[in-house]
Amino acid sequence: MDFALTREQRFFKEQVSRMLEHIARPFADAIDKSDNFPIGVFLELGRLGYYGIRYPEELGGMNADCTTFTIFAEELARASMGLAAIATMQCLMGTDFIHRFGNDEQKKRCLIPAIKGEKIGTIAFTEPDCGSDLGGIRTRAVKNDKGYLLIGRKLWITNGDVADFVTVAASTDPDKRLGGIGFFLIEKGTPGFSVGQKIEKISARGAATVELIFDECQIPAENLMGEEGKGAQYLNDILSEIRIMIAGLGLGLSKSAFSAGLRYAREREAFGRSIGEFQLIQEKIAEMEVRIKASEFLTYHAAWLKDKGSLTGKEAAMAKLYSTETACFVVDEVSRIHGAYGLAEEYPAQRYFRDGRFLLFGGGTSEILKTIIAKDTMKKSEFDIT
Ligand SMILES: Cc1cc2nc3c(=O)[nH]c(=O)nc-3n(C[C@H](O)[C@H](O)[C@H](O)COP(=O)(O)OP(=O)(O)OC[C@H]3O[C@@H](n4cnc5c(N)ncnc54)[C@H](O)[C@@H]3O)c2cc1C
Question: Stretch 43-66: mean pLDDT, rounded?
Answer without folding.
Answer: 97
